[in-house]
Amino acid sequence: MAEGQTRRGPGNQVRKPLPLSYAPRMSHPSRAPGSAPRHSVSVAGAVVDSRGRFLVMRRADNGAWELPGGVLELAKTPEAGVWREVWEETGVEVEVGGLSGVYKNLARGIVALVFRCRPVGGVLRVSAESSEVVWLTAGEVRERVAEVFAVRLLDAERDGVVVRSHDGWAFVDGS
Hints:
This protein is α+β, with helices and mostly antiparallel strands. Helix content is 17%, strand content 35%. The chain has helices at 78-90, 138-144, 147-155; strands at residues 7-8, 14-15, 40-47, 54-59, 65-66, 69-71, 92-105, 110-122, 130-136, 162-166. Strands 6-3-8-7-10 form a five-stranded mixed beta sheet, with helices on both faces. A three-stranded antiparallel beta sheet has the order 5-4-9. β4 (54-59) and β5 form a beta hairpin. The protein is globular, with a radius of gyration of 19 Å. Residues 1-29 have low confidence and may be disordered.
């Protein structure tokens, strides 16, 4: 429904949608009263092959080893976003499975949704966003990948969904 259109609610009463500029008022000590919270949602794929190895890429912009992923586009579902990010950055086509973890970078306001994935096609290749793409064992992941990203891969081996928060470098209490 577009902004300004009306619809009927319970009891046939007229209901108008909230304006696009609407944001719920929430209290937070570091924001001015009435300002909206600002978060970015990203998605990533914890891709594990039949030998138990993890798909990892070296970022072209900073050289860090991470799992493939990126900002979720407004018109994409999380699953479609994961598929696109993995394929774009690594050349690997995946079957996207269930959610394995939710990770919040408290310093940057980024909420990352990580999905378990299984490779089903494609060929490893680099892209504008990756300078190297490799399969690593769990031990190699622990050695090469920063803890806040390595955990996202290793958590995918667990049952259920993990929720963790970090400050950009280390996990904070409650994770």
